[in-house]
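Lay summary

Proteins are chains of building blocks that fold into shapes. Our project writes down both the chain and a compact code for its shape. Here are two examples, one after the other.
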Amino acid sequence: MYAERASRLTGAVVWTNTPTGAGGRAVLPDGCMDLLWSEGRLLVAGPDTRSYAPEGPERSWAGIRFFPGTAPALLGVPAYELRDLRVELADLWPAARVRRLCGRIEAAADPATALEDIALDTAARVAAPDPLLYRLVERLDQGCPVSGAAAELGIAARTLHRRSLHAFGYGPKTLARILRLRRALALARAGLPYAETAIRAGYADQPHLARDVRELAGVPLGELLGGG
């Protein structure tokens, strides 16, 4: 069973997922990176460009999902180095530090809250994320074209692409495409007909939406929605 709540860390979400016996659900691209805890291990989920299907038997997870573009400042690693990867936190941070954090989580009554506390402690020691990134995500999520967002932010397209690779793991066009898919899924799950969903989310038409769903999620829209 999946559950989430808003984090005390700005823009982040704290979540838990416990086995239900129904099989693991694929994780769709969302522009975010996560710090994960499961069975005594701390891991980082990098930014996805395609659907990710968990392997192996079901197990319990706790995580904190960072607002798009903010995790690299906390983790100290560019997002593009973790694109489409799940890696041990000990591969990014000193092993002794990670062992201490694992002990802290294991001793906590609620692993998810302990993860959140670790993220808050880390955020207090590093530079704040670039506010331009928040504005970029906001404008792209509103359907603004990348060129329009770059002009509004007063940044050259090449510079925006370079900064996006560092912050999001891919360029702004890919980020815009992923955010558009998220908008479409929210509309479709609210009961809007697929054709209207496509137009309101920013697609040219329903076939355009269908192609994007297949490429990013790996399954047809109807199957994706039927699965959850």
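And here is the second example, written the same way.
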Amino acid sequence: MAFSILRPLVSLGLLGALPVPFAAAQTADAAASDQSADAKPDQTYAVHAQSTLVVQGVKGFASPYTGDNSLHPHDTEETVDATLYLGVRPWKGAELWVNPEIDQGFGLSNTLGAGGFPSAEAYKVGKSNPYFKLQRLFLRQTIALGGKALTLDAAANQLRTTTTQNRIVITAGKIGVGDVFDTNSYAHDPRGDFLNWSVVDTGSFDYAANAWGYTYGAAVEWYQGDWTLRGGLFTLSKIPNGEELGTNLRQNEIVAEIEHRHTLLGQPGVIRVTGFRNRGMFARYNDAVALARATGGDVDLAPVRRMQNRAGVSMNAEQSLTANLGVFLRAGTTNGAIETYDFTDIDRTIAVGGSLKGKGWGRAQDNVALAFVNNGISRDFQRYLAAGGIGVLVGDGALPHPGDERILEAYYTYRPVSWASATIDFQHIANPGYNRDRGPANVLGARLHVGF
């Protein structure tokens, strides 16, 4: 099925690159660009596209019992997507982008079984037949405030734009929160770098999203010298982990981020601190357990949901060590007494890793990378899972021996030409679903990505 989608797209020449996240594209250019008067004129329109195929398989592992949200041994699945990025400039400084997409396939165990799920290309909605989604539709306005002139290079979801180092950028419409917040040059692109959910995003960042990872809202970014301040307001899904987004802001998320760009020993680096506050119909795990004990029924979050807040904070850093080697760090925590709403079942996380380009072995376009992750959940969440509850992604029906998820991911990307790459990816997941009775799970994957 996957190759039946790829074949006509290849014949039409419509396969392309993943869009650089908005903030990452702007940050990279702001740090590096000092354009002269020879800079090219602003683009008025652009067409980009991409297609990515991921195949993953998990070997056998200890699985003495399973629940509704368990990771299952001896499973192989694939996902494929193809996306168009159509952009036009309606007036000076503005960009209008639309991203229609075709998706197909399933994650391992129907994208269940681990807080740090092994494929960020696998959505929470799996289907055997290809289906269409309009993933993004947004307007961006860039307002120059002075300072050094620079040009933001052309990319998917970014028209080539001449502006200044100091500027305001306003983005509104249907986007991914991760397009603007919590970006990272080494770990934020499942179509080009790491695949694990808790590597490409901070695992405890419960960002607003539907089951495909997109939401409605607006973000404002203020670039001033080496600093950027960001803020955003977004709508949550109608129900936790739901397919449909809210049509108003009664259930909402506020995100704030401060970023500092610096040079260390002649190499660029970035530090970001991100905070979020979600407000909606959430349940406390202890309330669900207490109700089940009082009534003798199954533990269930729905009857005890009420309007309340859930907040968290994270830090995200990246640092180039040489022209070919870079490292990154992510760490975050959130209120683990209240259920996860839209992302994944992680209350605290730390991820560290690095990426090395292949210049040293004569393959300058290739790269090899390694990351380690430790994810944890609160004692309240552990008690809820032990009572038979299920979360967004995890729930084995019992949890007599809880433990942190520990993940290692390594990949090698072979890039024979600039528009195509092939990746081999390996992940070792200890205590999947925070359960020391199950695992460890070894996941081997292959990814094909093509684009212009």
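What can we say about the second shape? The longest helix spans residues 2-12.
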